[in-house]
Structure formats: structure tokens, C-alpha cells
Design goal:
The protein has 207 residues and is α/β, with parallel strands linked by helices. It has a single domain (2-204), classed as Rossmann fold. It has helices at 14-27, 63-72, 92-101, 119-126, 136-141, 152-160, 167-170, 173-178, 181-195; strands at 2-6, 32-36, 55-57, 76-79, 85-86, 90-91, 105-109, 144-150, 201-206. The strands form 2 sheets. The chain has a 7-stranded parallel beta sheet with strand order 3-2-4-7-1-8-9, sandwiched between helices. A hairpin with a 3-residue loop joins β5 (85-86) and β6. α4 packs antiparallel against α9.
Amino acid sequence: MLKIFTSYTPGAGKSYAMMEEAMNESRNGKKVVIAFINKQHRDSSKMPFECNENVTIHPLKGRESIEEIIEMKPDIVVLDELGMRIGKHTFLYNVAESFIKNNISVLTSANLKRFEEVNPIFRSATGVGIKTTIPNRFIKGADEIVFIDREPELMIKDFKEGKLFGERYMNSRIMNKNFEENTLKTYREISLDYLEKYNNVRIIQRD
């Protein structure tokens, strides 16, 4: 089972919602392994995390750690940022496939514009795209797509107040372009229109 948490913009709360679901599953008796959380641009200490007998943190450190997780036989593995690269030739989506092939469910996050089919639509609208994309087979083959929706005005307010990212990302030209009102409204419209063709989408509205 593959469940993808996505949104039209960074900072909407995809990873938070993913972790919240993982913790709920652990409280219901599922064995959960936290394998990768991206800490580059967020304070991961604010994520919902509960230490209990069903939650294990086992960071990815190459092929050996992937095999170790498979041997643990968890019900669920959490892989933040599906499109990120670990190692020279391996992406997290490759890792996700390894777990799924071994009957381990994967909860993951990725911005919608990361996907190969959607990226050109975003790029044509604003001129900003992603160099490294996620193959279409992942979003097309997902068992559930969870879309985190939030009004652009709220996203802009939090961005300007420095609530979403560290200094490096706040000073990024591309990130500032992303959080212009017209850009966010365009991205949101593109995302909702694109997802209409899927019947496995669940929308979470955030205030």
C-alpha cells in the first residue's frame, strides 16, 4: 500500500499530516518504522511524534539499512519527501518500491509539482519547475492521495512571519516567487484540477 500526502505548495503541512496518521496507526496496533524525515528546511521537533512500543526510528543509511527494515517486518514505513535522493543513484521512491514489494505499506510526502506529469503544467504557469521529478507510476499507482489544502492567504502570512522555513529557504528567490499570491492561487487551481481525474483523493482542509 502506498499513501501519498501532497499539496500545491511547500509548507502546507504534508509531512505533519503524514506523521499524524502514522502515530494514529501505531496507537491502533500497527508496527511503524520512521525511516526518513527531511530536516533541511523545517523544525522536525514540532511534528506529532509519540514514543510507544509500536514505533521505531531506523534512519536510512544505504542498502544495508533498507534490508534491516525489511527484516523487522513492520506494517508501515514512513518516508518523507519521496523525490529526494539518498546516495548517488538512489531516490526515496526506489526505496519505497523495495518496501512495497515486501508487503510493507509506505506513507510518504511530496509536493504535487514533483511528479513528472504535473511538473510541466506548473512550469508553464509560472516559469518555475523542478529539475528532478518523481516518475508518474507512483502517483498513478498510489492507493490513496491525501491532498493538504490551505488558503493561499494563510500560507503567505505564515511564510512572511517565518513560521514555515529556516533562513536559507526564506532568502531563496524561487521560494519567494512560490509564495507570491498569484503563484499560490495558480498552483492551487492546477492541483485541484489535476486531481479530479483520480477517485482515491482525500482532501484535508487546514486553517
